[in-house]
Design brief:
The complex is a heterodimer of chains A (about 220) and B (about 300). By secondary structure, chain A is mainly alpha-helical. Chain A has helices at about 1-20, 20-40, 45-75, 80-85, 90-120, 130-155, 160-170, 170-185, 195-220. In chain A, helix 2 (about 20-40) packs across helix 5 (about 90-120). The longest helix of chain A has about 30 residues, at about 45-75. Helices cover about 60% and strands about 5% of the residues of chain B. In chain B, helix 2 (about 55-80) runs antiparallel to helix 3. Classes of the chains: A mainly alpha (about 220), B mainly alpha (about 300). Chains A and B meet through helix 6, helix 7, helix 8 and helix 9 of A and helix 4 and helix 5 of B.
């Protein structure tokens, strides 16, 4: 399973390296979102600094829809999905591989976005470690839930509109917990004992990874 | 091409009676709840007449959040489990989801009606409210996936997974919003006021409300299940019927009568040409010539002179 994971993740990342769709299209869109948020809330710094964690995660959420869509599109042409099924790879490995590829792309995007939040909004980072850890946990959850829904919507008509409709409400806890964790890390909210938000992000990621490993095989048969 | 598949027979006698009794029981008990709730029970000391919503709102919420969603979740799991897989579970799941949407929406609406005079707002970011609203969105997503054309097995599989994912997500949302509120600012709306001690006629009315709405749910579920069976039948036979009708149009002569209507339609609806589409012009001898005004219109062959 792990070998298959590495294979599939490597394949998706290689496609991304060669096509650069996420880098050249999705990342700029996310940065534009930051600018648009500033137009909506600015030009004063105070509301932007206050809202920075939430805006960051909203941008990540919408960008993850685009990244997942890209990850589905990669499989949709030239009978790639059938090829993947014929290859004899473990469905769980395929799922984890696609999750890993999406997560790596999202992490790269988050680096750009957090730099944007600091530069454009003037937000201060109090604890870089907490910021990074919550980012990684939230990204794993988003990638897992997104890939699961991507597999669900793959091969369907109206996929582009259906995916955000299904995925965004499910991802709501990540937005909630990620924002709170970032508020603590940026010093705009007081820390609570035991980091409940980080734990929530981890639970979300683990639940959706487990769910995906179980149902990805049956879902592949459906598309 | 064979004739349309065997038609779906009516419900068996026993099933018909069961559903009728269910429906009658639901109607009577809902009526009794309304009567008891509006006229017999006294108004509450604190909430006055608003308390009467308590006989309706919790039972509806119970049906929406536990019964409907529970039935949908259990039948989805049973469908996904290879040993118990049968179309029955898929139909039951979609029926439960659709009835559940109605009850979830009613839960939110009755809650808002109660919340406006009590809290002063239609909506509060409370854990229960938020997770109920999210459940509604997820159920609507289920119906959206349901409507995408796909073959039965693939559709059932996707739908079952959607229910499963929603079942996992709703508790997570509930807890996260709960923490969100309690860690962010204290719960201001759900205070001690909300749980008034209920006794006597009020308790009995509330209990009856639960029974009434459970019966109503069971009846709606049975009827919706029947609709799903018929719907599948329509989907299977639709093409056959349409083909037969089209063939009938092409092979049978169609005479037009002077008022412009097409006559001699084989079964009364196959080739009905709307008024004015086929303009009939009677000539001196009384024969009728039809002038079709668009390619789809059938060229009329006068079978007999019309008097």
């Amino acid at each position: 399973m792990w070998r298959d994971t590495v294979l599939v993740a490597g394949k998706d990342l290689r496609i991304e390296l060669r096509s650069r769709v996420v880098l050249n299209q999705v990342v700029p869109v996310a940065v534009i979102m930051l600018v648009l948020f500033a137009f909506a809330l600015g030009p004063d710094d105070a509301p932007l600094v206050q809202a920075a964690p939430g805006l960051f995660w909203v941008a990540v959420l919408f960008a993850s829809v685009l990244a997942v869509q890209r990850s589905v599109v990669v499989e949709s042409s030239d009978g790639a999905r059938d090829g993947l099924r014929l290859s004899g790879l473990d469905p769980a490995g395929v799922f984890l591989g696609k999750v890993a590829a999406v997560a790596v792309q999202l992490v790269a995007l988050e680096v750009v976005l957090s730099a944007g939040v600091v530069v454009l909004y003037g937000a201060h980072v109090r604890s870089l470690g907490a910021l990074v850890v919550s980012c990684l946990a939230g990204t794993a959850g988003l990638a897992a839930a997104g890939t699961l829904y991507g597999a669900l919507a793959a091969g369907m008509r109206a996929r582009e509109t259906l995916l955000p409709f299904l995925f965004l409400p499910v991802a709501a806890p990540v937005l909630l917990a990620g924002t709170r964790a970032w508020q603590v890390a940026m010093g705009t909210a007081a820390a609570s004992p035991g980091d409940p938000w980080l734990r929530l992000l981890v639970v979300f990621a683990v639940v959706y990874l487990a769910l995906g490993v179980v149902v990805f095989g049956p879902l592949q048969e459906a598309s | 091409m064979t004739a349309p598949a065997a038609s779906v027979g009516p419900w068996s006698r026993r099933a018909t009676w069961t559903v009728r009794v269910l429906g009658l029981g639901a109607a009577l008990s809902v009526a009794a709840t309304v009567w008891l709730g509006l006229w017999v029970t006294p108004p509450d000391q604190v909430q006055r007449n608003l308390v009467r919503l308590v006989y309706v709102h919790p039972p509806i919420a119970w049906v929406a959040l536990y019964l409907a969603f529970g039935v949908a979740a259990v039948s989805s799991v049973l469908w996904l489990w290879p040993r118990t897989r049968s179309p029955f579970w898929d139909r039951l799941a979609v029926s439960a989801v659709e009835v559940g949407i109605v009850f979830t929406a009613l839960t939110l609406i009755t809650g808002s009606i109660w919340g406006r005079p009590t809290w002063g707002v239609w909506w509060a970011w409370d854990a229960r409210l938020t997770s109920t609203a999210l459940l509604l969105v997820l159920l609507l997503g289920y119906m959206a996936i349901r409507r995408v054309p796909a073959d039965g097995d693939a559709r059932a599989r996707r739908c079952a997974v959607v229910v499963l994912v929603s079942a996992v997500d709703v508790p997570i949302v509930h807890f996260s919003v709960d923490w969100w509120r309690t860690l962010h600012q204290g719960a201001t709306v759900f205070n001690a006021n909300l749980s008034p001690t209920i006794h006597g006629s009020m308790a009995w009315t509330l209990l009856l409300g639960f029974v009434a709405f459970t019966l109503l749910f069971a009846w709606m579920l049975a009827v919706r299940y029947r609709i799903e069976v018929l719907w599948e039948h329509v989907e299977e036979t639709e093409l056959d019927v349409a083909l037969h009708e089209r063939w009938a149009e092409g092979s049978l002569p169609i005479a037009t009568v002077p008022d412009g209507r097409a006559a001699t339609v084989p079964d009364g609806r196959a080739a009905a040409v709307p008024d004015g589409r086929a303009a009939a012009v009677p000539d001196e001898r009384g024969a009728v010539t039809a002038v079709p005004d668009e390619p789809a219109a059938v060229v009329a062959v006068p079978a007999e002179p019309v008097a």
